[in-house]
Amino acid sequence: MGEETQYFSKDFEWEELREEIENDLSLRHHLLPFDPSAPSPSLSLSNESEAWKSFHNRHSTGRFFKERRYLLKEFPELLTCDADSKVLEVGCGNGSTVLPILRGKQIITVYACDCSMEALERAKDIICTTDGLSIEHRFHPFLCDLSLNGFPKWLICDFCRKPSPHKPNDFCLSDANKNKEVSMDRISSEGGQCCIGGVDFVTLIFTLSAMPFQKMPKAIAKCISVLKPGGLLLFRDYGLYDMTMLRFPPERRVGFREYMRSDGTLSYFFSLDTVRNLFVSAGFIELDLEYCCIKSVNRRNEKHMRRVWVHGKFQKPIQSCPSSAPH
């Protein structure tokens, strides 16, 4: 798809797809409640990150992902935001989301995290070698596994939110020093504080579906904790009855609408109600939530594919009491 091509999100109606799928007996196993006693891949809730690290090692050339230029059409707020706006990209992979954001808004700062150091290194390589893209002081990758840990304190901390004449300047720097991707000089120079004071946007692009469903509520709570009041969380992920979901055989199910690929990575497929409940329960205000239904064609075999993604925008309330970030 060319950069200037009009982007459509309604090539077909999701309700028509739902009716077709739910009337197809060969796909009935996707609709049944999950039986924990049924044969399924062995799932350790602590090793899904290792599976993704191995994935990025295998795809270290970066050819597996394409730059997601359509995101600026889906989320125009990233183009119209203030000059000093800060974005946190969660699960940045090799930079396929970060690159169009940095390219589209030359005065925006992006903080990007991933559980894989190899992915972060690849993202830096891609972005640093992009012609005409000035990234000095604009792109800051750091290692963080959101499914296991909270964000580093230097993103925002309760102590920094509360003015105090006795506040030490290096309160958060011990946490930052543990992360080789973070410059203590840069952090301490941000307004003379020991943290950057929160971000204006959090992007969750095909990241939440990669962690076990039971870990999603805490992950979303961590995201709202680093947003400034009034900040936006921009969400895009796999939708219910997407083509990839229907390809999974029954033995790959590890939960309701949750599957494990042969390489050990997870994939969850969201309904609108599930997404709404997750984010509203965390304290977000729903601004936009819909299925994006796209038809694509495999040019090699002329096979038509129906892709379903969930598109959402959620806002942190402007009037909110500071709360501790989950750890």
Automatic annotation (TrEMBL):
One family name in Pfam for this protein: Methyltransf_23
Keywords, comma-separated and alphabetical: Methyltransferase, Transferase
GO molecular function, one term: RNA methyltransferase activity
Biological process (GO), any one: methylation
This protein's record includes keyword Magnesium: no
CDD domains cross-referenced by the UniProt entry: AdoMet_MTases (cd02440)
Enzyme class, spelled out: transferase
EC number: 2.1.1.-
InterPro entries assigned: METTL2/6/8-like, SAM-dependent_MTases_sf
Gene3D superfamilies: Vaccinia Virus protein VP39
PANTHER family named among the record's database cross-references: METHYLTRANSFERASE-RELATED, TRNA N(3)-METHYLCYTIDINE METHYLTRANSFERASE
Reported function: S-adenosyl-L-methionine-dependent methyltransferase.
Family: Belongs to the methyltransferase superfamily. METL family.
The name this protein goes by in its record: tRNA N(3)-methylcytidine methyltransferase
Record organism: Nelumbo nucifera (Sacred lotus)
Lineage, highest ranks first: Eukaryota, Viridiplantae, Streptophyta, Embryophyta, Tracheophyta
